[in-house]
Amino acid sequence: MRSAIRCFTTGCAKASEPMGKVTTTIKVTNRIDEILAARGFIDVDRVRSITLENVLVDTGATRLCLPEEIISQLGLSLQGEADVKLAVGVKKVRIFREVSLTVAGREGTFNRVELPANEEPLLGLIPLEDLGLEPDLQNQRVRVLPLEGKDTYLSVM
Hints:
Helices cover 14% and strands 43% of the residues. The protein is mostly beta strands. β6 (89-103) and β7 form a beta hairpin. The chain has a single domain (4-144), classed as Acid Proteases (Cathepsin D, subunit A, domain 1, Beta Barrel), CATH 2.40.70. The radius of gyration is 16 Å and the shape is globular. The model is unreliable at 1-17 (pLDDT under 50).
């Protein structure tokens, strides 16, 4: 599989408290394990999951980006490879299948991009938008958008 995915890893995750930096806590779970547990094929306590704190919310990245050691720990399945645009050019990376991602009480299923070992995880634009979240730069937190009523973030046009 080849596709274009923007996933900038320009060192902003390592910057020392730049103005407007937003971080959040995320929970990432192996979706295949969840399905197997729900159907009784494995015990619930065998579902691989990890909670990560201070994950950079990066609207310059389009996807959830996780370093290879976390992907390995979760036992995620390889989907394929893709070219990504970095600040220094284009690089081929691996894409892994389906994780359940929980952020600020919202949950969804997403594929993720593999980062090199020891890189900081990034929470990109697609999961943010799909979960109805946006960075609040002034208060340096994630804002949960309304799910119901006339101000709902969901739209079909």
